[in-house]
Amino acid sequence: MKNGKFSTGLAAFLMLALAAPAPAADPGWYYRYKGTFGLGLGGGTTTPDGDDETVSIILSAHTFADTNAGKLVDFSFADLATINPTTVPVSALKWSLVPVTPPSGIDGLELSEETGQLYGAVKTPGDYEFQVVATHDGQEGRQTYFIRVGALVFEVAQVSAGNGSTCAVTTAGAVKCWGWNNYGQLGNGDTTSTSRPVDVIGLDKGVEFVAAFEGISCAALKAGGAKCWGKGSGGQLGNGIKANSSEPVPVSGLTAKVKKFAAGAHHTCALTDAGALMCWGDNGSGQIGMGATPELLAPTPVTGLETGVLDVAADSMHTCVVQAPGVVKCMGYNGYGQFGIGTKGGTHRSPIQSDNITSGATQVTGSAYHTCALVSGSVWCWGANESWYRLGTGNTAEFLRPYNIGLSGVRTVSAGYFHTCALLASGGIQCWGGNNQYQLGTNSISTSPYPRWVDNMGSAVASFASGAAHSCAVMTDMKLKCWGGGGLGQLGNGAWANSFMTVDALPE
How many whole angstroms separate alpha carbon 211 and alpha carbon 195? Predict the structure, then answer.
C-alpha cells in the first residue's frame, strides 16, 4: 500500500522486559529476556542444548503529522519493527491494537493482524492514544502512539452521477451517496433524500468503485464480486428477487472482479476484468441480449460478448458496448437512432454493430436518446439531437450513424439526458447541449450547440461523471466539485437548488 498521509503527536511508551523463571523440570532449558528500555519489549527463546538464543521484538517510536477525520490513513508498523536475531522475519509477527484514550478505540481504523498495516479513515475528530503490539512465539514488542484528528474532510477517489443522485468512493475505500432516495438508492437504510453525503451501510472499506444510475446504485468490491441497492422491481439488483432494497445486497453468482457497471430503467450489466459482459433484469426490449427470454434475476453471460468487451453503457431500454478491436455494438430498443445503424425504431435482441466505427473505440456513453463514443481520442455522437443540441454537432439534425463532432484530445466522455461533457487531456472539462439546469457549468441557461469550457473548473480534474442533469468532478487534490441540477440534493453541498457554479460536496 502507498504511504499514508495521517498525523499524530509524538508518543513513546517505554517498557522494560521482566525475566521469566526457568522451567523446573529441565534446568538445561531456560529463558532470558533482553529488555530494551525506552523502545519496546524484548522476548527470549531457548534451544535444547542450553545455548541461549536471545530474541527481542522492538517497535520504534513514530511521530505522525496531524490529520483530519475522513482522510485516508495507510501506514505500515512493520516498518518500525526490529527483531533479533534477524533470522526471524517481520512477516512472522502477529499484530494487534490496544486502545488507550479513548478506551472505546478509533472508529474507522483497523490494524491488520497479518501485516501490521493501519488502514482506514477516522470518523470522529479528537486525540487518540493507542498501543500497537507485535507478537511471535509467545514474545511481544509494544509501543504507544498518538494521532490528532481534526475536522471532517471529504477526500474522494472516484465519483458516479445518476438520475438525481450521486455516489462516491472515498480514499479509504468507503462509499457515500446523496441526493434523491425514492427507491433507497443511497443505501443508508431508508428512503429519505439528503443534500449531503451519507454512509452506505456495510461499505465502509474495500470498494473499488461505485456506479449510480436511475434509482439504483452498485459497488464493485476490491476482493471481487459486487453489491447493488435501490430499485429492484425488474430484478435489476441481481439478488434473485424483484424488490427494492435500501441496503446493499450481494449480486448472486458474481464473484469476478468488475471493471464497469451499466444500468437502465429495469436492467443492469457488469463488465468483468476478463472482458466478459454479464447482464440481468428486464429483457422486454432485448436490452440484456438474451433473445426472447423475458427477464433474468441473476447475472448471465451475454452471447457474443463473452470476451473482448472494453466498455459498457446503458440507459432506459438499451445497452451498448465497445468490443475489440474497438467497435460499438448495441442491443435493446433503438427508438431514437441511438444504435447508429442508419435507422431508428424497433428492437434488437442480440448485439448489432454500429456503422462508421471500424476500430479504435475505447469508451461508450449515452442517454435514452443518444450515444457517444471515444474513438482514438476524438468524440463521435449519434441519435436524437433536437433543440437540445446534445450531439454537439452545431445543429439540431439527428444523426443515425456515428459522427465525429470535431473534439479531439479527449480522455473520457460522459452523457446526461440532454447534455454531454468531455474531460480533455489538458485537465479541463467541456460540455454541450441542454442547459436548463446549468448542467453545462456556464453562467447561463442557454443551450450550446458546441463544446464550451466549464467555468471555474480550471485544469486540475482527475476524473468526472455526468448524471441526468448534473456532473461531478474529482480534482487532483481529491476534492469533489459538482454543478448543474441540484433540486434533489444531488450536488451534495447541503442545498436543494441548481448551480451554474461548481460547488464543493461536503459530508454531514
Answer: 18
39: pLDDT strictly greater than 50: no
Where does 112-179 show beta strands of DSSP type E?
A: 117-120, 126-136, 139-150, 156-161, 165-170, 175-179
Q: Read off the pTM.
A: 0.86
d(CA 230, CA 266): 11
> Which residues, 6+ apart, have CB-to-CB distance to 483 below 8 Å?
438, 439, 441, 454, 470, 471, 472, 491, 499, 500, 501, 502, 503
DSSP structure class, residue 36: B
Which residue from 480, 483, 471, 391 is spatially nearest to 443, judged by alpha carbons?
483
Q: How far apart are CA 400 and CA 392, in angstroms?
A: 14
Residue 178, all three cell numbers: 446523496
Angstrom CA distances, 359 to 176, 319, 350, 377, stand at 37, 19, 20, 12
**75-96 per-position pLDDT tens digit:** 999 999 999 999 999 999 999 9
Rounded-to-5 percentages of helix, strand, coil across the chain: 0, 45, 55
How far apart are the C-alpha atoms of 96 and 41, rounded to whole Å? 15
Residue 185 contacts residue 217 (beta carbons within 8 Å):
yes
Element (H or E) spanning 255, and its range? Answer: none
CB contact set of 366 (below 8 Å; sequence gap of 6+): 313, 315, 320, 338, 372, 383, 415
Query: Which residue type does 283 have?
Result: N
Q: For 296-328, how does the pLDDT look when each residue is reduced to its tens digit (9 = 90+)?
A: 999 999 999 999 999 999 999 999 999 999 999
444 pLDDT more than 50: yes
Q: Which amino acid is at 89?
A: P
Say how far apart CA 283 and CA 181 lie, in whole Å: 25
Dihedral of CA 6/259/430/432: which sign? Answer: negative
Contact 394, 452 (CB under 8 A): no
* CA–CA separation, 463 and 472 (whole Å): 9
**Residues facing residue 144 across a β-bridge:** 131
Whether the CB-CB separation of 320 and 371 falls below 8 Å is answered with yes
CA distances from 67 to 54, 70, 181, 478 (A): 39, 9, 32, 15
State the greatest distance between any 2 C-alpha atoms of the chain, in Å, as a whole number. Answer: 96
Which helix or strand (DSSP H or E) is residue 46 part of? none
